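I am writing to request your help with a piece of structural work I have in hand. A protein sequence and the structure tokens that stand for its backbone fold form the material at issue. Please examine both parts with care and let me know of anything in them that strikes you as inconsistent. The record follows directly beneath this note.
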Amino acid sequence: MKSHCFLGLLLVAQHLVCATNTLANPFQSKSTSHQYYVATNGADTNTGSIRTPFKTINAALIKAQPGDQVIVRGGRYYQKIKFPRSGEPGKPISLQSYPKEKAIIDGSSINVTGWQALITLINTSWITIDGFDICNLHSNKVNTDPQGISISGSGHDIAIKNCNIYNIKNTTTLAQGRSGHAILVIGTAKTPIVNLSITDCTVHDTQTGTSENVTLAGNVDGFVFKRNQVYDTENIGIIVAGGDGLNPRGAIATNYARNGVISDNIFHHNTMTKTPETWGPDRYGAISIYVCGGANTLIERNIVYESDRGIGLISESNIYPTKTTMVRNNLVYHCYRTGIYMGDYLNYTISGTKNCSVINNTLVENNRVLGAFGEIEGEIRLTEHCDSNVIKYNRIYAAAKDVLIHKYTSSGSHNIIDYNQYFSSEKPQWIWNSTNNNPITDFNTWKQTSGQDTHSTLKIVSSIFNTNSLKQWKKSLQSKI
């Protein structure tokens, strides 16, 4: 009888041990890959098992080989991280938070010198970063650039997902080189950065000075930026750019970001008004989604609101035009200035906007403040050197004294504007080939003067802003996100 009881107790004990081990290590598998664990109470002399974890993430990454996982338990890690090697096809090296625990990579104890990131990848491929808070990197020094994540050189199959990046701030003046980035990607090698994805992340509460929150520049060929939120930032939300600024030695033929998708994101309150002590009280230059010398990018199903400007297809380069990019099915509303901006900055550069399409977007009551010349920038704004672009099937709702479409100069050719639906609560206004004079208020006169909008329609309505309509538009787009 005693032997039977003992055997029963032994079986129960074995069952409990197995259950405990399974619960403690959710990553156990029969594969040949390894899991290395990191915890704030670990030690780098440990083995990196779940029961004897490392203390620093770098110690685990040094051990990790292709196919391995580095799993970080909850807590704050006051560390800079650098990936020492790449994964392999089908065997990425994965850096991830432990399920249902918050691992925070915290830069508050780091003294920033030069350009410095909390997570750095140089010439690495098949890497996944999943589920971290990346935050609190500050600089008040001249010519520094604090960054959340930095990716440079070449590389491919890099995934950043489910990360929350915030409080990356440079507090120097503009004259001292105020600059910073939440995510900085610069293709600086002969072979491009390919198959980069940034998904389901948030970027917020940053001070990036003259730079952008998410920068894709130089030799970058193939990227996805999807289901992210970028908000409460000092300057540009995301930029797809030529590399003549950040990578001046790059080959002209390949030194620009291209072949990407920016879709299903939410951008709001990306504005210089958050730091008037830096920019002055009347600066509204931030653009939430900005293609600047980039090419062949699809910008689709994004919601942009209450930023300085909504979407920009502009070039600040004399080498790279913004080209072959489509802006489709986006909702842009209540921005301080223009909803969608095309062309060069006036009297600044010459490359312009070429062969781009703005199709089936909804713009609502932007232009809440005047432009730099005392003008209304327009729900859609065209400045210098716009050539062979298409603006069709958009729904544009103008508030009182708003301008529906504003073309600033006589430069540019072969643009097509048609099949748009215009709505205005007062006399509609268009401006053609003028910065600030002689708005056109008659629809037929607009058609004759511009030679555009033959099949477009105009409706005068008593009230443009309708909360229910706006909710429906947002709900419709968000249901696809």
User: Anything to note?
Assistant: The two ends are 64 Å apart (CA to CA). Helices lie at 2-24, 57-63, 276-279, 443-450, 467-478. The chain is about 10% helix and 40% strand.
